[in-house]
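The methods section describes the discrete structure representation at length, but only in general terms. What matters is that the chain and its backbone geometry are given together, residue for residue. For illustration, here is how one protein appears when written out as sequence plus structure tokens:
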Amino acid sequence: MVKQPAPDTARRSERSRRAIYDAAIALVAEVGYPRTTIEGIAARAGVGKQTIYRWWSSKADVLLEAFLDLSEQAAREADPQDVYVIPDTGDLAADLKAVLRATVDQLKDPRFEAPSRALAAEGVVDEQLGRVMVGKLLEPSLQLYVDRLRAAQEAGQVRQEIDPRIALELFVSPLAQRWLQYTGPISYEYTDTLVDYALHGLAPR
């Protein structure tokens, strides 16, 4: 009698995890965050509800991990000049405009928009989720801006007394607010203007 090999549980678990990620992202895009449920995710992924609860405690946790996985996939596919790196060509304005244009593209990408908005809204009411989002999603990206602005300081393009962590908010925060609150369209022209205003100020030159 030929002995059959034992099932590869790790491989099976990875398939299930991937199916759950895809189901969570798809459901949020289709029906919105409030109507997305653990039961719905399980049914869409073809797994039992307890499989999800074994790995995550809430739908917010599922969606956060699914979104992080989606971001990592996009990073692996990204062009070197995409949103995941800030180029240093020696022209600070051009470099900031390039990365903010890439950010506009990502914010408008249907794969990212619905889960991004859902997580942002939930992070306001769920303090723990909000802290995890900041630590895992926002801070790594903000640190790229800090590093680029510090390089500009070393090159004499930015005043030495400027705090890069505060300075980056001059162009990042308005974009985030406009996107979250629908106060106006987000476009390349808009983010280019943010950079010009931030670097050159409002007073007559």
Q: What stands out?
A: Residues 1-9 have pLDDT under 50 and may be disordered. The longest helix spans residues 127-154. The chain has ten helices and no strands.
